[in-house]
Amino acid sequence: TYSDAAIQCCLMIKSLFRLSLRMVTGFVQSLIKLCGLNWTAPDYSTLCRRQKYIDIAISYQKSSYGLHLLMDSTGLKFLGEGEWKRKKHGLGYRRQWRKLHIAIDVETFQIRAIQLTTNNISDSQVLGDLLDQIPQDEQIDSVYTDGAYDTKQCRQAIADRQAHAVIPPRKNAKPWKDKKRSSLERNELLQTVKRLGRTLWKKWSGYHRRSLVETKMHCIKLLGDKLSARSFDSQVNEVHARVAVLNRFTELG
Questions:
Q1: Which one-letter DSSP state was computed for residue 59?
Q2: CA-to-CA separations, 86 to 99, 157, 172, 227, 231, in angstroms, rounded
Q3: Residues 148, 210, 56, CA angle at the centre, nearest 5°?
Q4: Could you count the other beta carbons within 10 Å of the beta carbon of residue 15?
Q5: Spatial separation of the C-alpha atoms in residues 190 and 195, rounded to whole Å
Q6: Do residues 6 and 238 lie in contact, with contact meaning Cβ atoms separated by under 8 Å?
Q7: For residue 34, pLDDT beyond 70
Q8: What is the pTM of this model?
Q9: To 10 degrees, what angle do helices 198-205 and 181-196 make?
Q10: What is the pLDDT of residue 90?
Q11: CB of 169 within 8 A of CB of 152?
Q12: What is the mean pLDDT of the chain?
């Protein structure tokens, strides 16, 4: 029986070098041989089965001060039935995607929260789950997102963590009528944007630092812009393995 650490190491190698599971088995066996050890690498069936249930450990560095989180989402195409049908029925067949949501720390540039969903889940529905992945004893100072998160639920979830929401109002935004603090702050922001202009507000609020999370999305896609696993649980761990690799490299500098 192989430990979770051994399986995670194999999955991280798979993500780093963009290998198939069968290629990972041979690669790891060669490394073991070079080390002069009489061990056996996990075979394809073991990796395929354990990938679905393993809990990937993602390391990160705690921020020295309060967290400033940058959030965004992107799409990842996945192979399997959807890809096969596209090839069989032509380009007109509707493709299938998974949606990846992440939150990174401005200070360390590491990914602190991650969620993989189906493509019919909106960004605003996931914000609360991302915030829940941050320990309650860790202070969150601010959360930067785009206009897709400009909802009452998102702003209230951020306010519940005693954090400041840096979210631009939508272009057709109207004042909210309720008297909650998060709604009143959003109404003041709406008036400020109308008075000063969206460009000046973004510069004043430091909103442009949100481009850092888009850069991190690009780094994730450098490890592969599509998922090779077929089941959803395996796809989640495939993405988590990529994040574990990126966080480790970011920590090393």
A1: -
A2: 19, 39, 37, 16, 18
A3: 85
A4: 22
A5: 9
A6: no
A7: yes
A8: 0.88
A9: 120
A10: 63
A11: no
A12: 90
Q: Quick one: pLDDT at residue 213?
A: 94
Express as a percent the part of the chain with pLDDT over 90.
68
Q: Which residue has the tokens 């206009």?
A: 147
Tokens 């000063």 locate to 196
Q: Which residue has the tokens 């888009």?
A: 214
Q: Which residues are CB-neighbours of 219 under 8 A, at least 6 positions away?
A: 246
Which of 78, 65, 133 is CA-nearest to residue 101?
133
Rounded (10°) angle between helices 21-34 and 44-53 = 110
Q: Is 110 left (phi over 0), alpha (psi -120 to 50) or beta?
A: beta
Q: CB-hemisphere CA count at 13 Å for 251?
A: 14
| Contact (CB, 8 A) for 74 and 116 | no
DSSP state of 1: -
78, 145 contact by CB (below 8 A): no
